[in-house]
Design brief:
- With 221 residues, the chain is mainly alpha-helical.
- The chain has one domain (22-217).
- It has helices spanning 2-8, 23-43, 47-68, 72-81, 97-110, 113-137, 148-169, 174-192, 199-217, and strands at 141-143, 146-147.
- Helix 3 runs antiparallel to helix 5 (97-110) and helix 5 (97-110) packs parallel to helix 9 (199-217).
- The chain is globular, with a radius of gyration of 19 Å.
């Protein structure tokens, strides 16, 4: 009976590769981040509490990942359940979800609120848009999975996000413009670092650290 049920939920078509556009995954990536930020602002929760919740969620997610990678039936069920947003490589490796929660949690724990939120916005927008542009237009490789075109897209997105975010929380000034340009560079560098560490972890943590240090030199927030 169990085997018959399992046969009904087999993955009928291949999962997407990293080199695919995978629009559904990118929309999921942005939507979950924006929903999380909206909940944070509407709930009135403290950053420490939110960071703790996300850290616990990340730990639970890593445990589920551990179980599914060691149990074929659990793995098969979860891969079918999450098929629209899963990659082929994640059938046999840890998915991005626990790293996403961990990266946001660490940023909220270690950096001032406005810097942490800005680093999370980099993750929400720059990561999927840089990937999209890199896959479509990435002709000049900087690293094996990173292109000049994707990096320029990451810089542009992070620059715009920083400028808009800064105009919401600070007065227009030359300092803000300098901060936005430097923030774009920091975001692009953090996205390049995802060649070596999961992007959901390294983008909020590395960009958060860079923005934190930048704010000492160019006091905006």
């Amino acid at each position: 009976m169990g085997q018959a049920l399992l046969s009904q939920i087999r993955i009928s078509s291949p999962l997407r590769l990293r080199s695919d556009l995978h629009i559904t995954r990118k929309l999921w990536h942005m939507a979950t981040g924006l929903i999380g930020l909206t909940f944070y602002y509407k709930s009135g929760l403290t950053t420490d509490f939110m960071a703790t919740v996300l850290l616990i969620f990340s730990g639970c997610s890593f445990f589920i990942e551990y179980l599914r990678l060691r149990n074929e039936k659990i793995n098969q069920f979860l891969m079918v359940l999450m098929k629209p947003v899963m990659r082929e490589s994640e059938k046999s490796s840890v998915s991005g979800m626990p790293f996403y929660a961990l990266g946001v949690s660490l940023s909220l724990f270690f950096f001032p609120e406005r810097i942490a939120i800005l680093s999370v916005l980099f993750l929400i927008f720059a990561d999927p848009i840089a990937s999209f542009c890199g896959i479509l237009y990435g002709r000049d490789k900087i690293l094996p999975n990173k292109s000049l075109q994707g990096t320029i897209a990451a810089f542009t997105v992070c620059y715009i996000v920083t400028l808009v975010y800064g105009l919401i929380h600070a007065s227009p000034s030359m300092n803000l413009l300098i901060f936005a340009i430097a923030g774009g560079l920091i975001g692009a560098i953090s996205e390049l670092c995802s060649q070596f560490v999961d992007d959901n972890l390294c983008i909020p943590v590395i960009s958060g650290l860079g923005l934190f240090l930048l704010n000492f030199a160019v006091n905006v927030f």
